[in-house]
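Batch manifest line 514
LIGAND: calcium ion
JOB: complex structure
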Amino acid sequence: MPAWIKDAIFYEIYPQSFKDSNGDGIGDFNGIIEKLDYIKELGCNAIWMNPCYDSPFRDAGYDVRDYKKTAARYGSMEDIVRLFAEVHKRDMHILLDLVPGHTSEEHPWFLESSKVEENEYTDRYIWTDKWFHGAQGLNYIAGEAPRDGVYVLNYFKCQPALNYGFLHPEERWQKGIEDPACVATREALKDIIRFWLDKGCDGFRVDMADSLVKKDDENKSGTSVVWKDIRRMLDEEYPEAAIVSEWNKPQVAIPAGFHMDFFLDWEGNGYNLLMRNVENGRNNSFFYKDSDRSVLDFFEEYLEKYEQIKQQGHYCLITGNHDMIRAAYYLDVRELKLAYAFLFTMPGNPFLYYGDEIGMHYQNLPTKEGGYTRTGSRTPMQWDDTENCGFSTASADKLYLPVDKSEDAPSVASQEKDKDSLLSMVKEILAVRNQEADLRENANLELVYAKREERSFAYRRGNLLMFCNPSGEESVIEDFGLPDIREKVFAVGEADFVNGAYRLGEQSFVMWRI
Ligand code: GLC
Ligand code: CA
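JOB STATUS: finished
ARTIFACT:
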């Protein structure tokens, strides 16, 4: 495990929407450089930047046309290398987004692979052997390439699946994972990884990391072979490089070689429950004041996985990401404060999605670059109350996406002046996380109090004790034998220990040192 991962706090940057430095309406590398001090002052010491490679942008850059070239709209190779250096100058780290499962249909490999004549890339993608033979239950007729076959998709139609083979090949066109063509794909992936690590990035967030090997790879043993191989290469050649998987199964992803895995928002799961849970049309997210949910529905799922992998890797909690509805759609500022206080004091590496620190709102917008319902969570960062919220000097119609023009649109500038703002609270809790050895060193998590019929709960990390009451009423919990409290380290709302009981005011969160 690279040493820097232990206390890394990540900030996710969607490059097109963060900061435009040259007035063309789209965020760029130089804009990010301008805002590195802001990210650092927030308390984050690491960055995950969404794809920034050459692309036709049919899936916002997750359709890569050239892995080794930056998208011109974000800047040049010199610019991104300078970004890496500026990040490191500030003692920070940066992950790029690696898309191993598919490319754009405009990638030169795919263009070659589409040809009738056999060539080096014929088997770089998965093709059936007849133009009317679909693959993997996908019965469609591709019919765009001269090649007599149908290619397997990984996500959108514009994203053909790279060929890492089949765990149990059955058809003639299905290759085993150790077939030279599949090994060649793996080597090509290593080549891309080396290329960017040599340029100076610190690792990768890996897109759809579980999607590589096809057909009955249920326990992902085939895909795990690929990642173990990649991890071996990293350990040997780049021991300081880190990889985090978009997988949502740490008990599989960590043993497969990832240092970290995300708890992602899948409807009905424990993470979804915290901030985005709607039941029968009604908000019933745990941190919503009037919810009737117990936190046990989160913890039962979380702890089962956490306990399995805590010695080898990190299970990471996020405020949101570019694929999900912003939490502020479901929670007000006070509720967000409690949710973030919780997320930022849990084990693993927290990931803060840009704009969530000020509670940016979800916008109702038509789709952009394959965003669909995700588009509304990808709008320009709201820096201040000047033109375009300080995101860009372009005219409003030139912006990548419109800025939030509502009266109550939050901004960094206004919240910086307000000590009760969400932004101020985020800074405070991240400062605590950075200072407290138990949080920094990833001390063990123990759920010390949680009941089915109660909203309040408590957990412990080393000598820190956290209580949270998300409800609108005071809650009193009788002493149940924990060590004495020595001092209050952090609080949202009122909380005290008096007359042998913990008294938690309405909508409160407290951290005590014991
Ligand atoms: C991941 C990305 C998402 C993208 C998809 C296909 O889920 O987070 O944005 O559309 O993979 O690459
Ligand atoms: Ca720009």
